[in-house]
Design goal:
The protein contains 2 helices and 43 strands. It is an all-beta fold and 757 residues long. It folds into 3 domains: 216 residues, lipopolysaccharide transport protein A fold (Sandwich); 191 residues, no CATH class; 160 residues, no CATH class. The chain has a 26-stranded antiparallel β-barrel. Strands 1, 2, 3, 4, 5, 6, 7, 8, 9, 10, 11, 12, 13 and 14 form a 14-stranded antiparallel sheet that branches. The longest helix has 5 residues.
Length: 757
């Protein structure tokens, strides 16, 4: 028996009933749309600061103790505390022998995990369980709430009978789940419901005998909400993802996707993360495409994995593989765009140190469409060595050993050894800098020299090269409209010399012509790769001028440059290509303007002065407040592109009409062929409880298996479709932004837009 001392506070010891709150991640929503639900009541923090663990503290207006039954009765503004638990009521009885507590009338109870307002309260100390009837409850961390005919609380678990559950903060929630029984687990941050009805706006829409669901942002295995679509190519579609939480560092998602015109496709994703490795594997398989005449399966699989074993060693592998060239156009994937012309796969291991950078790599290109297959490197070893022995002097050694094999013809093979030492002197001062480089490139080939290829078996090539570049950095203060700005001017000049060597006996394995935008004018080479090193005797002249405000923000930039040839370059990628006879390159122009804190203008132009024509151009005007509010207008031209001139205008935008309504759209129009190549519009409603997205699209059908991949000049084939996605928030659904939706179109969002490679 325990003696009670009481004045304003009565304290006595009973067996402890502990309920430890679980620390959980809580991502707060937009306060303008999703206010944090107000607590059912304001519980004081530690109202009895000197209370010993396991003891009960009581504060009341009046107390009576029955010495016979050892029951203490408290009346008027009763406050009871046991460790983390607090009870507030008007009348309570505490049994000193058993530790049981009974309270009648309106009661308020909290244990740090859940708050409950009920008609009465009963604590069974022997069973370590509390019972509350006619209860309204609210979870402290997530704000989920509901009602229960009977609510029982035991350590780390809350059980509700005849109850409801919702994460909507309003009294009349858009959705709620009512069930005969709901169990909430604090340790695992998940809930279970038996004989549950899912209600939307008070109307039952789904009966579920059993369901488990997360009650916080923590991961939990279970079904995610489905996505519904419809298109001309695939017909009606539905996806129902099932998420599997394997371990804290490992999960998987299995998604059946039914397409009325094609059949059932199974999609799977597996991810894991360790201290040294990050990996993701994806597989999509359609056993029999009903829309195809041939009885064939279609698939996509992808791997991406990163390793970091130490500060010096790291590895990476990335590859997407598809069953046929039209897979992306017909079925689509989040890992590649429908307009992609190729898939790039590679795996590599890197060694990094102060002076050395060594890479062992294998890479492969899959060209989509009826093109000749490219060469893959199996493998390639690249090393860079650099040192600075004497102040401004630098020594570099680049070497590469590559083995190439053609994907279609295994007999077409080649091995290339390349070594290139370089010595350079650089000088940098605040007002100017200049660089002089002298290098010698030696290359040896062992390649297939069949008659039809007209190549040498073991050609060698030795080429010296000299490069000199100088820049001047000028700066002044200017006053415009009573505001001081910093105006900079950076003229630069470069001389480049490489003699001519006949390279016609060397095959083309990894080389292509690079674009001549402003930055590209000052490159040391005209071709990527090493199969062709162009002879050059040229001077590049250019300048860039900028305007900065007092916060060093660039408000405007204008750059222009051009190459002047002393001799025409005789080196071309392929035989039969006419040697360029112009004495200067296209004029490269770039402009950028920061019209305001949220509006930008960018333009890049390559203009041929002799023919008075624009070879390439890209112009964009963009307003961007945030990812929910942006609009971009663009214009793009390209001439002499496979004998098809391209001129397109486009618009892309995401607008937050109100905190609950968002609109997204894009539209790209082909001026050369007078048609819309791609268009999409999407409308989304979103609040704290649920979201719905309706979208429609129209895009050109590329049919890569039957043509070159370019839009046909005649009447093209188009694909139209609609999509409806319903998202319930608070039950583990995912909600990507509308900008992510626009990335699935033929022309995704780009910021900023450049012509450079």
């Amino acid at each position: 028996m325990h003696k009670i001392f009481w004045t304003s506070v009565c304290v006595f010891a009973v067996s402890a009933w502990q309920h430890t709150a679980l620390a959980q991640q809580n991502v707060q929503p937009d306060m303008s749309v999703c206010p944090i639900p107000a607590p059912l009541f304001n519980a004081p923090i530690n109202p009895f600061p000197n209370l010993l663990p396991g003891a009960i503290g009581v504060r009341a207006n009046r107390a009576d103790i029955d010495s016979t039954t050892q029951v203490a009765s408290f009346f008027g503004a009763v406050e009871v505390q046991l460790d983390e638990q607090q009870l507030r009521t008007e009348q309570a009885q505490i049994n000193q022998l058993t530790g049981n507590i009974n309270a009648s009338g309106e009661t308020r109870f909290t244990n740090g995990y859940v708050q409950v307002a009920s008609e009465n309260f009963r604590l069974n100390s022997g069973e370590n369980q509390a019972f509350l009837s006619g209860a309204r409850y609210q979870l402290a961390v997530s704000g989920a709430h509901g009602k229960a005919d009977m609510l029982s609380i035991s350590p780390q678990q809350v059980r509700l009978e005849g109850s409801t559950f919702t994460t909507c903060p309003s009294e009349n929630p858009a959705w709620q789940m009512s069930a005969e029984e709901i169990s909430l687990s604090e340790d695992e941050a998940w809930g279970e419901a038996w004989h549950a009805k899912f209600e939307l706006f008070g109307v039952p829409v789904l009966y579920i005998p059993y369901i488990n669901f997360p009650v916080t942002e923590e991961r939990k295995s279970g079904f995610l909400f489905p996505t519904f679509r419809s298109s001309q190519k695939n017909g009606f579609e539905v996806e129902i993802p099932y998420y599997i939480n394997i371990a804290p560092n490992m999960d998987a998602t299995i998604t059946p996707r039914y397409m009325a015109e094609r059949g059932l496709q199974m999609q799977g994703e597996y991810r894991f993360l360790t201290e040294t490795t990050q990996a993701q594997y994806n597989l999509a398989y359609l056993n029999d495409d009903k829309s195809s005449v041939a009885d064939n399966s279609r698939f996509l699989w992808r791997i991406e994995q990163r390793h970091s074993w130490s500060d010096n060693w790291r590895g990476y592998i990335n590859g997407t593989f598809i069953s046929d060239d039209d897979y992306l156009n017909d079925i689509g994937s989040e890992f590649a765009g429908r307009a992609d012309a190729q898939l790039y796969r590679h795996a590599q291991i890197d060694y990094l140190s102060k002076n050395w950078n060594v890479t062992l790599r294998t890479e492969d290109f899959e060209i989509l469409g009826n093109y000749r297959s490219p060469y893959r490197t199996t493998p390639q070893i690249i090393s860079h060595y650099s040192m600075s022995p004497l102040g401004n002097w630098d020594f570099k050694l680049f070497s590469e050993l590559s083995h190439f094999s053609n994907q279609d013809d295994s007999s077409e093979r080649a091995t290339r050894l390349h070594m290139q030492p370089q010595i350079a002197y650089h000088l940098e001062r605040p007002g100017y800098d200049w660089l002089a480089e002298l290098s010698y490139a030696y290359t040896y080939y062992n390649q297939d020299a069949s008659t039809e290829r007209n190549l040498e078996e073991n050609p060698t090539r030795g080429l010296p090269s000299f490069r000199w570049r100088a820049r001047v950095n000028l700066e002044r203060l200017v006053e415009l409209n009573d505001t001081i700005y910093t105006h900079t001017l950076q003229p630069q000049i470069q001389y480049l010399y490489t003699p001519y060597r006949d390279q016609s006996g060397i095959g083309i394995y990894d080389s292509t012509l690079m674009q001549d935008d402003y930055q590209g004018l000052f490159r040391a080479r005209r071709f990527s790769g090493l199969d062709r090193i162009a002879d050059t005797n040229q001077v590049t002249v250019g300048a860039s001028t900028s305007l900065f405000d007092r916060q060093a923000r660039e408000l405007a930039r204008f750059s222009f440059g051009q190459i002047y040839y002393f001799e025409n370059s005789r080196t071309q990628l392929f035989e039969g290509v006419n040697t360029a006879t112009e004495d200067r390159s296209d004029l490269a122009l770039e402009t950028r303007f920061r019209l305001s804190n949220n509006m930008y203008f960018n333009s890049s132009i390559q203009y041929n002065l002799e023919q008075n024509t624009t070879r390439k151009s890209q112009t964009t005007l963009e307003y961007r407040k945030d990812e929910f509010n942006l609009i971009q207008f663009s214009h793009r031209t390209a001439s002499n592109l496979l004998e098809n001139n391209v001129e397109q205008v486009g618009m892309l935008g995401v607008v937050e009409i109100s905190p609950r309504w968002q609109l997204a759209s894009n539209w790209y129009y082909d001026l050369a062929n007078s048609r819309t190549n791609d268009a999409l519009i999407a409308l989304q409603y979103s609040d704290c409880c649920w979201a719905m997205r309706i979208s429609g699209y129209r895009r050109i059908n590329r049919n890569l298996e039957f043509n070159t991949g370019l839009p046909q000049a005649g009447a093209p084939e188009f694909d139209n479709g609609v999509s409806v996605q319903f998202i319930i928030k608070g039950l583990g659904s995912d909600n990507n932004g509308l900008l992510d939706l626009l990335e699935q179109s033929l022309f995704g969002y780009r910021h900023p837009f450049h012509l450079s490679n």
